[in-house]
């Protein structure tokens, strides 16, 4: 969405703050999430990194 409509990036960043917009992923979703680590948007990269770290912690 941000690739096509970059204007709402600030609002998206607000929604993806820790404790607000985070979701949980399952182990089988991790490969698709890792692809997003290459996003040109820092807020997407940081969100995905946090989700992957939390998923990794859950699996321990």
Describe the overall structure.
The chain has one domain (9-59). The protein is an all-alpha fold. The radius of gyration is 12 Å and the shape is globular. The chain has helices at residues 9-15, 30-35, 42-59.
**Rg result:** 12 Å
CA-CA gap between termini: 33 Å
Tally of separate domains? 1
How big a fraction of the residues is strand? under 5%
Helical content band: 40-55%
Low-confidence stretches: none
Secondary structure tally, helices: 3
Order of helices and strands: HHH
**Main beta sheet strand tally, sense and closure:** none
**How many β strands by DSSP?**
0
Tell the overall outline.
globular
Secondary structure category:
mainly alpha
Mean pLDDT across all amino acids: 77
Give the structure's gist in a few sentences.
By secondary structure, the protein is an all-alpha fold.
Features of the shown structure:
60 residues, mainly alpha, 52% helix, globular
What's the structural blueprint in terms of helices and strands?
Elements lengths: L8 H7 L14 H6 L6 H18 L1
